[in-house]
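RECORD TYPE: inverse folding
INPUT: structure tokens
STRUCTURE:
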């Protein structure tokens, strides 16, 4: 008798908890493979469960026809509908985890050895904010603040988050922010097979197109997990990797291992000493989004998106691939070099420097080398008769693919669990 009453009490408490959780979640329809009554899972649950999502974005007909599926996937995006992706010639491994970096010794791993590939973007000629892991409900207050100052920033967004918060993604896009891929499910890419890596990237491209009608040019690998194999796969999909040279450590606010004062003091020191570069931040929690607002106040609104860094003015989004289904190709927008940075307005006359930007995307020139050529050409054009101006020392990539470090290259390890 007492056991029966105890079970009734447990069931009642569980039902009340489910009702309270449901009341706190955003309105929307759930899609397979969900079960009735499930809702958004906290981040630590998302890392453990692959079937607990509350998607607010309908699965488009064109993607149903291409993949044969009827719903957005869980964290493990399947390699389906991608028979036209050519992965030939790309080595199958080695695959390794975050704890086995010794396997990546000769693979130019950014996560393990801070090695930067020839086409990776790691530096900027201003100190600029970038944000990972959105969109979330906390992203809204961040972009609301930026709208009051006119700041534009770069958001590296997750596929599963786009499915849960499509309207916030649309708001980011409408307010002129650059949106880039952070993969579909925040997986550590070097641990995956070639097909799994392609699926993580491709599904994020598909859902961005289904939500706001664009195809990203840029992506940031979760945890900074990229190497020569990952770069080769991403390049087949037209993606340019963006990493960072400065870490705000805002994620440490979530476990109270660092105070807001310590973070803001570091930002002030970088700004006052003239440090420039790409700053890693997050819009995944209230604490990190609030920190993003305060850092924005410190740095001011006159920042670059990653596409504008080093004077390259790279196109924000890719043109629609010809092998995408005809019934969805009208959803894409083509943003070309020479247009305004956010893709709006009339095309401008191309300059002699924009060829460098095209060369970066075509894999013919590194981003740092293109920035150097842009700077030298700009200065010499200003006064052909003058003595060559003193060159400012440009940021250099980390160790080359052969493993030799360039002068000044850092060897610090990123904080793995929070990027």
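DESIGNED SEQUENCE:
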């Amino acid at each position: 008798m007492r056991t029966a009453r105890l079970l009734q009490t447990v069931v009642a408490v569980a039902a009340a908890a489910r009702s309270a959780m449901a009341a706190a979640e955003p309105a929307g329809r759930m899609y397979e493979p969900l079960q009735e009554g499930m809702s958004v899972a906290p981040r630590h649950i998302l890392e453990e469960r692959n079937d607990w999502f509350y998607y607010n974005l309908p699965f488009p007909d064109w993607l149903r026809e291409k993949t044969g599926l009827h719903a957005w996937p869980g964290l493990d995006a399947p390699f389906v509908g991608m028979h036209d992706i050519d992965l030939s010639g790309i080595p199958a491994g080695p695959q390794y985890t975050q704890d086995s970096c010794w396997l990546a010794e000769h693979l130019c791993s950014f996560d393990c050895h801070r090695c930067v590939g020839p086409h990776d973007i790691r530096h900027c000629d201003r100190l600029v904010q970038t944000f990972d892991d959105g969109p979330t409900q906390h992203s809204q207050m961040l972009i609301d603040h930026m709208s009051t100052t006119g700041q534009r920033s770069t958001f590296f967004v997750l596929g599963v988050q786009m499915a849960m918060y499509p309207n916030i993604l649309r708001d980011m896009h409408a307010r002129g922010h650059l949106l880039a891929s952070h993969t579909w499910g925040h997986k550590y890419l070097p641990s995956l097979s070639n097909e799994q890596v392609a699926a993580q990237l491709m599904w994020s491209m598909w859902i961005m197109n289904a939500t706001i009608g664009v195809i990203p040019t840029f992506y940031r690998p979760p945890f900074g997990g990229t190497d020569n194999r990952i770069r080769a796969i991403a390049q087949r999909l037209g993606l340019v990797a963006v990493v960072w040279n400065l870490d705000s450590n805002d994620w440490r606010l979530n476990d109270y291992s660092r105070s807001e004062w310590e973070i803001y003091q570091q930002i002030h020191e970088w700004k006052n000493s003239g440090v420039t570069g790409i700053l890693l931040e997050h819009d995944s929690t209230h604490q990190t989004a609030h920190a993003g607002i305060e850092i924005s106040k410190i740095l001011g609104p006159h920042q670059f998106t990653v596409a504008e860094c080093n004077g390259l003015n790279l196109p924000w989004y890719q043109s629609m691939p010809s092998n995408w289904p005809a019934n969805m190709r009208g959803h894409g927008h083509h943003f070309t070099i020479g247009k305004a940075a956010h893709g709006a307005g009339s095309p401008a006359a191309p300059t002699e420097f924009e060829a460098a930007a095209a060369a970066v995307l075509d894999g013919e020139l590194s981003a740092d080398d293109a920035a150097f050529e842009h700077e030298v050409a700009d200065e010499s054009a200003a006064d052909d008769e003058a003595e060559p101006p003193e060159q400012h020392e440009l940021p250099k990539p980390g160790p080359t693919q052969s493993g030799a470090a360039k002068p000044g290259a850092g060897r610090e390890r990123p904080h793995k669990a929070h990027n």
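NOTES: The domain at 121-383+410-419 is CATH 3.20.20.370 (TIM Barrel).
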